């Protein structure tokens, strides 16, 4: 009788699809930030009132959420739930944050705006993630608060025209934020099984 090899696949082989698909897909999702911010700016205008913050935030969050949902692949939470959570979180978070700083755009104001917006978006997303990650999902709002604050520092330092009052930081901050949140797709993919997509 022929010998049948029932050993598990070599770890290096099983990890290859994970690194080839999950990480690059998530890094590409950085585009959701500038695309969402640009769409909101073109359709709504600068964030200089509660109305523009709410509508611009909803639009930015919807675009960002849709691109992130694609990037998460099959390891993702429910796609529609993620998109809605990101849109609602961004709309509410930006409205609250911009109101707190009275729509000012000094560096300190934008750092606070990023921290508050990130926390609210993170909380909304955590409500979706809790089904997959349990109570650990509620670390996500804290992480996103810090990361979005840092992203505003990066974009402002590099020279984004903050006087235009965008809903979100620019591409440089988006790249930093996406890299720092890479833990999310990594953890979700590993829970779903390394090598799936």
Q: What does this protein look like?
A:
This protein is mainly α and 197 residues long. The chain has one domain (28-187). It has 8 helices and no strands.
Write the layout of secondary structure elements.
Blueprint: H1 11-28, H2 32-44, H3 50-72, H4 79-100, H5 107-133, H6 140-158, H7 171-180, H8 183-192
What attributes characterize this protein structure?
single chain; 197 residues; 72% helix
Structural class: mainly alpha
Total E-strand runs: 0
Sheet having the most strands: none
Strand content is under 5%
Mean pLDDT across residues: 88
Q: What is the quaternary state of this protein?
A: single chain
Distance between the termini: 36 Å
Topology order in helix (H) and strand (E) letters: HHHHHHHH
Summarize the amount of helix as a percent range: over 70%
Low-confidence stretches: 7-14
The Rg value, from CA coordinates, equals: 18 Å
Number of helices: 8
Whole-number count of domains: 1
Which geometry do the CA atoms define?
globular
């Amino acid at each position: 009788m022929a010998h049948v090899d029932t050993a598990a696949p070599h770890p290096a082989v099983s990890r290859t699809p994970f690194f080839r698909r999950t990480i690059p897909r998530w890094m590409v999702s950085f585009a959701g930030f500038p695309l969402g911010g640009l769409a909101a700016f073109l359709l709504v205008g600068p964030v200089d009132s509660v109305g523009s913050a709410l509508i611009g935030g909803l639009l930015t969050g919807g675009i960002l959420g849709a691109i992130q949902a694609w990037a998460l692949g099959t390891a993702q939470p429910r796609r529609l739930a993620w998109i809605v959570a990101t849109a609602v979180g961004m709309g509410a978070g930006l409205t609250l944050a911009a109101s707190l700083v009275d729509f000012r755009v000094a560096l300190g104001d934008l750092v606070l705006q990023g921290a508050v917006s990130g926390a609210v978006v993170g909380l909304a997303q955590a409500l979706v993630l809790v089904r997959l990650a349990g109570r650990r999902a509620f670390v996500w709002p804290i992480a996103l608060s810090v990361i979005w604050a840092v992203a505003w520092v990066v974009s402002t330092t590099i020279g984004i025209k903050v006087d235009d009052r965008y809903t979100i930081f620019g591409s440089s901050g988006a790249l930093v934020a996406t890299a720092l949140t890479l833990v999310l797709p990594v953890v979700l993919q590993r829970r779903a099984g390394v090598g799936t997509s």
